[in-house]
Amino acid sequence: MRQKLCPDLAIDLGTANTLVSVEGEGIVLNEPSVVALHKGTRRVLGKGVAVGKLAKQMLGRTPESITAVRPLKDGVITDFELCEVMLRYFIQKASRNVRGMRPRVIIAIPGGITPVEKRAVFNSAERSGAGKVYLIEESKAAGIGAGLPISEPMASMVCDIGGGTSDVAIFSMGEIVVAETVRVAGDELDEAIVEYMKQHFSLRIGSQTAEQIKLRLGSAFPQEQELTTEVRGLDTISGVPRKAIVTSEEIREALRPPLEAIVNCAKTAIERCKPELVADIVDNGLVLTGGGALLRGLDRLMHEQLGIPVRVADEPLYTVARGAAICLEHLNEWRDQFDTGQKAA
Question: CA angle 313-316-322, nearest 5°?
Fold first, then answer.
């Protein structure tokens, strides 16, 4: 009866996007992790405008009286008040409003965050309308969502590339035996494009333009057919608007440093692994999840650099949310394995 009145929720709380799954219904919400507010007053804009998709459209386009911000950076909460506003909006939008009842919530978090940062997530969710809150590492949720046999006595490896962090984990017997996290992911790829355009083209562009360039031209490995696109921005020398033609080879060069950091993170995880588990990884390979896994040729680059099979998970954007939803279905059996925030300082 409780589940019919107030279903449990699974939340992939990401730097770029937040996904919410409802038990028995799957993913019901996928919106940018952005909040719009009146500058200086901290007052959030009107209902339906303040959070999510419409708020993201305001990034870089707002007048001085309005600002659009992300409450999370590199996978952790940087603005507690706005994070609570955002979570409350998403929870209310995804769950049924039953007076006096709060949904149990599982939240996927990056593996490298500190106990204090875990406590911040726990408290923000609780104050946002959640009942009992459980935390699960994103890499573990990604492994479950990708269908890896993480409970078997063999090694399974996953690399989850989100908006703020890249998490690499090696599983065996249902536990994470090696974990590495680097705070380099989708946002850093966008920033690398912004900086490249500034240095090589004397053109200033915004983060959303950089994201569009990444989607159109971005690649990690040489492609059979290289692409070009026209980029509009502000000339840093003359101070007037200007256009420039950019090639996919140039964007690949721009993305090389952050991609090297992600590859090195995976290398470090393998180096820390026991020889028996390394042998399993050579056979089973690495699975890429998260939005960053959609970058063209990333699987080929990592295969070349790591020397192991690499594949992209089905629907990598939804892998973590799907894994958290699976945990939600078995909450009563697995609840002892989740972090309830009580150990966080």
Answer: 100
Q: What is the per-residue DSSP string for 80-127?
A: HHHHHHHHHHHHHHHS---TT----EEEEE-TT--HHHHHHHHHHHHH
- What does the chain come to in residues? 345
Cα angle 117, 15, 329; round to 5: 80
Tens of pLDDT, residues 140-168: 999 999 999 988 899 999 999 999 899 99
Instruction: Give the model confidence (pLDDT) of 59-90 as tens digits.
Output: 666 666 677 788 888 888 888 888 888 888 88
Compute the chain's Rg from CA coordinates: 21
Torsions phi, psi for 22 (to 5 deg): -110, 135
Position 345 pLDDT exceeds 60: no
Give the predicted TM-score (pTM) of the model.
0.88
Please report where in the chains the tokens 């006096």 appear, as a residue: 100
Rounded to the nearest 10 degrees, what angle do helices 80-94 and 115-127 cross at? Answer: 50
Neighbour count for residue 233 (Cβ, 10 Å): 20
Kind of pairing between the strands at 133-137 and 105-109: parallel
Quote the pLDDT of residue 218: 95
Residue 154 gets which letter from DSSP? Answer: S
- Answer yes or no: are the C-beta atoms of 196 and 212 closer than 8 Å: no
